[in-house]
User: Which sequence fits this backbone?
């Protein structure tokens, strides 16, 4: 056993981590387009890229060249090295928008230079054939608009009704593509100026509209562009809100949703050289090469990279686990045929030897506790019930640690980070359940002198009920253990670069060792230690965030309050949202189930010296719930304020549940980071060891002894 532990500790200290990448973005060229174009429509249908229409100046605009308008459709199938022409339409629809949907690429509006069109149709590439399906036409002809697919609906904002129009549209339309008879709805537009060539995307359940240009009269009565930097967010059922403005305009920028909560804006025309186009001609330096990221949660902009090439009047679409930009205008009057794929690279920070040593010492102490308590085991009562001599406060902390998994440790701050404190009430139902459990169910279980909860089922309903109940528990716990191990390991691996298999092995093997050696006594006392480490790690993170936020905790609370991050009560009667009534009624029942029928919890009721001590353990767990929930919710809110001040530290490649591990590896000093990482391990292992011990109790008591 000692050799096994030594090998495991050596493997833990040698955990490989990804070294820091050379840059935040990786690029690769894809097959060139058949010719240089811009203003084309771009989409992705099941891995096949589709390009529709486009324009070009075969002869330079500044040498008298005229714009040519194309009407052909090309596809690039997965693995292909050349684009294939599959259709030639009867007119161009350049400067429309291509929107990728699960059923194909929807082409919206467009122009042929003489007039704009209201046509809307879907192109689907199936079995080597292109299929066109007509959809309801737009309420008005439109080109140079913004559009995105959200939920099952297509949203279209702004644009130009006519090529010669002197004012852009301020219209906002929606088409529900899931409806048997879809029809366009005219929605309330954004509370800002009319615009065309905006940046638009759907992300985080909302439609976003950024920048674009308005038209105003110059001194001679001609229309000239005014470049906009504002932004707006539309959430179905809630309407429009204004977002943080950009520093510079991003007119006609390729825009795409990325990750869970980011929108990437590549390049864009900021208008800085708009009045020098004729002077610069083909010596124009091109458009901005900034790759911007907007975070929909913190409402912040940051520049995350420089682009190797900068195109406008083209589109960006998801493609092969990254993003592709095909062609576009690289300076006024000049087009490109280059197709570039890119993806953001996770910048993982390697844990130090001190971090791993701290974690290793903590895990060694847990195994040492298993060896220590193995000396007191003489029979199954000792192994399964710790001789019924556990202090009430230790049993209560063990119940608390069992129910508080690493999923809760990561997801509750993440939920408060993304939304607010609405789900604070979820855990408060545990307190509401405590009297029911303490005075109704506890006397029942203690009075029957049970080892498992399912023994009662046989006495009351027969053997079949006992077998069904215990089997259900066994299969549920086996599935739960997999989730409790995998999800935290996934978040840790994503944020730290630690191999996910090592995370799972370390937690699983070590929890098995000390549970096997020390039985219920080891489980309970390691749970106590792990609750201390878990809560200590959370409080430590909270303290460090407070010290790093400008203005300290006073400003942290002020910012969070001003942005309604402490919102807790939603009094609506809508059962589809987390209203007070839904949370209280639904979660009260959900919370009562484990405390009234789960073997992992009931077994702890039976480890104390008396019913009164068990009742005190129940109240200990209930009272621990309040400060713990406050800590986790406040930690999520603190992370929100911190990353609002440091948006560049957010990693678009990570899920929200990795926000806390990301903060740990980015901001905590060596050694301290390892200690807080141990808190995440503790949260998983305190649930895992309880499941292991209770599973063995059920198998031995309900099957081995019974049969």
Assistant:
């Amino acid at each position: 056993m000692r050799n096994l532990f030594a090998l495991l500790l050596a493997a833990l200290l040698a955990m490989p981590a990804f070294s820091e990448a050379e840059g935040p973005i990786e690029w690769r060229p894809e097959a060139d387009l058949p010719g240089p174009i811009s203003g084309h429509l771009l989409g992705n249908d099941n891995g096949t890229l589709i390009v529709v229409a486009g324009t070009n100046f075969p002869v330079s605009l500044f040498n008298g060249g005229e714009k040519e308008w194309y009407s052909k459709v090309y596809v690039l199938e997965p693995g292909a090295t050349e684009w294939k022409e599959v259709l030639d339409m009867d007119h161009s629809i350049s400067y429309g928008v291509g929107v990728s949907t699960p059923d194909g690429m929807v082409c919206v509006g467009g122009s042929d230079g003489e007039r704009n069109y209201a046509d809307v149709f879907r192109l689907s590439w199936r079995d080597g054939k292109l299929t066109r399906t007509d959809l309801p036409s737009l309420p008005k002809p439109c080109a140079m608009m913004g559009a995105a697919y959200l939920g099952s609906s297509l949203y279209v904002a702004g644009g130009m009704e006519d090529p010669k129009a002197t004012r852009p549209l301020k219209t906002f339309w929606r088409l529900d593509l899931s409806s048997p008879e879809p029809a366009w709805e005219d929605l309330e537009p954004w509370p800002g100026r009319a615009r065309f060539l905006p940046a638009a995307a759907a992300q985080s359940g909302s439609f976003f509209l950024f920048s674009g240009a308005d038209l105003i009269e110059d001194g001679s009565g001609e229309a000239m562009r005014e470049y906009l930097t504002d932004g707006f967010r539309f959430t179905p059922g809630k309407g429009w809100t204004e977002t943080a403005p950009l520093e510079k305009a991003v007119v006609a920028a390729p825009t795409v949703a990325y990750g869970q909560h980011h929108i990437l804006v590549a390049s864009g025309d900021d208008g800085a050289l708009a009045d020098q186009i004729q002077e610069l001609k083909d010596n124009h330096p091109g458009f901005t090469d900034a790759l911007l990221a907007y975070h929909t949660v913190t409402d912040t902009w940051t520049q995350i990279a420089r682009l190797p090439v900068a195109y406008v009047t083209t589109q960006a679409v998801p493609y092969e686990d990254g993003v592709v930009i095909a062609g576009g205008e690289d300076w006024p009057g000049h087009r490109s045929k280059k197709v570039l794929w890119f993806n953001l690279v996770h910048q993982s920070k390697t844990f130090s030897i001190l971090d791993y040593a701290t974690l290793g010492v903590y895990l060694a102490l847990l195994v040492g506790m298993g060896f220590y308590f193995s000396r007191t085991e003489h029979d199954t009562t000792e192994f399964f019930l710790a001789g019924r001599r556990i202090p009430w406060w230790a049993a209560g902390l063990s119940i608390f640690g069992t129910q508080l998994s690493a999923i809760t440790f990561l997801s509750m701050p993440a939920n408060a980070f993304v939304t607010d404190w609405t789900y604070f009430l979820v855990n408060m139902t545990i307190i509401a359940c405590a009297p029911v459990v303490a005075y109704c169910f506890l006397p029942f279980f203690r009075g029957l002198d049970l080892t498992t909860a399912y023994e009662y089922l046989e006495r009351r309903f027969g053997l079949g009920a006992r077998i069904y109940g215990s089997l259900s528990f066994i299969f549920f716990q086996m599935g739960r253990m997999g989730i409790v191990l995998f999800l935290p390991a996934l978040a840790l691996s994503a944020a730290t670069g630690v191999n996910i298999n090592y995370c799972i092995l370390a937690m699983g093997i070590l929890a098995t060792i000390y549970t096997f050696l020390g039985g219920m006594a080891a489980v309970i006392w390691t749970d106590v230690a792990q609750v201390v480490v878990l809560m200590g790690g959370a409080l430590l993170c909270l303290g460090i965030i407070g010290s790093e936020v400008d203005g300290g905790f006073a400003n942290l609370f002020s910012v969070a309050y001003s942005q309604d991050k402490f919102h807790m009560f939603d009094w609506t009667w809508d059962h589809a949202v987390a209203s007070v009534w839904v949370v209280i009624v639904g979660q009260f029942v959900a919370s009562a189930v484990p405390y009234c029928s789960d073997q992992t919890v009931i077994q702890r009721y039976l480890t104390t010296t008396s019913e009164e001590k068990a009742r005190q353990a129940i109240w200990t767990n209930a009272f621990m719930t309040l400060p713990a929930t406050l800590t986790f919710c406040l930690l999520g809110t603190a992370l929100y304020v911190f990353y609002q001040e440091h948006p560049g530290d957010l990693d678009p490649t990570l899920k929200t549940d990795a926000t806390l591990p990301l903060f740990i590896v980015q901001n905590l000093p060596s050694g301290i980071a390892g200690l807080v990482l141990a808190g995440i391990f503790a949260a998983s292992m305190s649930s895992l060891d309880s499941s292991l011990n209770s599973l063995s109790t059920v198998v031995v008591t309900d099957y081995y002894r019974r049969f």
About this structure: The chain has two domains: 35-344, 357-704. The longest strand covers residues 334-344. Confidence is low (pLDDT under 50) at residues 1-22.
